[in-house]
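Ex. 9. Protein: Replication restart protein PriA.
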Amino acid sequence: MARFASLVLDIPTRALTAPYDYAVPEELEGDVAVGCTVLVNFSGRPAVGYVVAVSDDAPEGVDPEKVKPLEQVLAPSAFCSAQARLGLWMAREYAAPLNACFRLLLPAGQTVKVTKGDNGWSLDGSVPDAPEDRWVALTEKGRDFVPRANALRQREVLEGLAEGPQRLADLAAVSPGARGAVTALEKKGVVTVSSSLKTGAVDETSLSSARAPRPRVLTQGQRDALSAIARAREAADGSVVLVDGVTGSGKTEVYLQAIEETLAQGRTAIVLVPEISLTAQTVGRFRGRFGDEVSILHSRLSTGERRQQWELARTGHSRVVVGARSALFAPLDNVGLIVVDEEHEQSYKQDQAPRYHARETAAELARLHGAALVLGSATPSMESLERCREGSWRGVPWVRASMPERPGSAVLPAVSVVDMREQFRDRNGSPLSAPLRKALLETHAAGEKSVLLLNRRGFASFLMCRDCGCVPTCPHCSTSLTYHERTRELACHTCGSRWPARAYPDPGTVCPSCGSRYLGAYGIGTQRVEDELRALLPGAPIVRMDADTTKAKGAHQKLLEEFDASPGAVLVGTQMIAKGLDFPDVTLVGVVNADTSLKLPDFRAAERTYGLLEQVAGRAGRGEKPGRVLIQTYWPTHPAITSVAQHNRAAFVRYEMAMRREADYPPFTRLGNVTVSSTNEGLAERVVTQVADELRAATAGRPGWRVLGPTDCLKAKAKDRYRRHVLVKAPLSADLGAVLAEACREVDSRGTSVAIDVDACDLM
Ligand code: ADP
Ligand code: ZN
Ligand code: ZN
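Predicted structure tokens for Replication restart protein PriA:
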């Protein structure tokens, strides 16, 4: 009986929205399975396809005899049918090209392309061999071990290892019988064989908390969270548990124990962490608990290294995969638990096609596998909080487990706010206020450490009054207006309204709210702060961490180790210092400029600022000694600031939810963003207008839909391309991706590039 395969063709076009069916020739039946890469004849042209389903039945309504056969199997199975369904879901949900979604599922380094030449079809690229995944190393005892004189094979192996660890495959290649010798030596305790390999920048290190032992007693919050997770796993329906715990409350410990339980049931686990917190510290904690069972995937690995980690998961050697976004697509069987740490992080939204959100995609994968999804954060997203309040989302239960306390003696730091308007009136030109200077001196004198955060988001794109902190905002959208030098206008990037910026930047301009003349673009750099610190604390170890100092591979890690090892040190940096670092001897955290990010023309500005402050404040007092936090701001009354100071997140959430509901923003609606860019300004304008017209026509009369714009993007021109966008608000139940994709297909967009962003996070 004939078999049929359903294929996603690797053709980069949005027009291809569904798989195609091909017949499986009898001689290939043994080789064709879900996840295989195959070669087909697509309307007379060769094409590569990925098998998403195999069936005994011919496609409906088609004569089985007429179904074209596929030609050849190019690569063995790389993904399972749950992952195949995930790929199809992503393409529809995010209006993304099908082939781009499926490429995420392929092993690193697989690049099969097919071209038609004079002599017929030819294949380019490669399917690399799976690398050997076992490494052999001498143990302490092995260094002095002398094998029996007639144990020639063992002798050869030991000689090979004298220089350092070797791949088992390499040993076997030069010495037949090496595998048997290695097994014998392993039994004697002379060598170790392991699949845990050095993985570039994420080696285990000696950082203090990487060594944290398993606690003997869990807090009540941790126990409750673990039983909620166990129930979610038993439900086997993709149930979600939001572990809502202050920094240092022991969320990571909860993940570790939930993973242990999952492994004990014979299932596997995926842990997503933001790329930036994928540090040796994090990796060390997982390795410390699960040893060789962990694969690590992150963007700093070479293709070979990534391929190796991928292969460890595929072959079942590692049953836990820890990584950034892409770890979601690791080839694990029988996934029982998916953890998304710092679930509120914006970096979970991919900013190139396919523009998927890793948290939402994880929820779909958990549903497909019947796994539990655990989301963790000290500052959960408004989306997750709202779904937990509702109790479900898309038919799946969502529950919140709250962990309001830190274990043991660690207490929440005391937070105070420094009103920079006062400081400015004192004509203290330094970015460091008098109270912050005093605290830095005291902390250093006590031999303790400080962390200083410089908020770089929203850098100098707005006007601010240095006397009252006022920034002009749009009356329709409550987002900050940005200043356009070219047209001397203040513009709203959400609705497109514009106002003349009166005489600015003439010196005669005054603040609309207090009449002050100290109105200007606002900004300071990390270098400046570092210089101030060196003058304030001569001889103190000062570690600066920003985009400039962390360019080199492993630099991030080195700076952290340096900070860890230097008593009395100060770490100064941008938001990259705010996340996940756990140093017990940091007792002071200073925020140099808390509000720059509050003034971004983005409805998430307050949420992000609040989250950043809360995260960085959580760096203080993680050990025995109490910590304190000083927040410098021109806007001391904003709820994002006062809520951090009073440790009152509920107040912030109430404020923020009310704002969102009022203005019809997520989590109460879905938001889509279509950006059209072109080097030809008129063309970009024409195409975006057509897209907006199509969207208006498609959604006219449908309740809850609104089309806003088109307007300039915040970055109205980037790399010589003019950028225009149109925003769509849709009801929560809307099939937003499909509507956006359909509207864009109707428009002739030649000469422009059109980016569809569903559930857009970054509206720049
Ligand atoms: P989070 O991930 O919420 O920031 P962690 O899991 O990193 O918190 O825990 C913070 C610190 O507390 C770590 O050093 C961890 O080893 C320790 N810890 C976690 N749970 C417990 C517990 N039940 N008892 C004692 N210490 C704990
Ligand atoms: Zn003012
Ligand atoms: Zn507006």
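Check your answer against this statement. The first strand starts at residue 3 and ends at 9.
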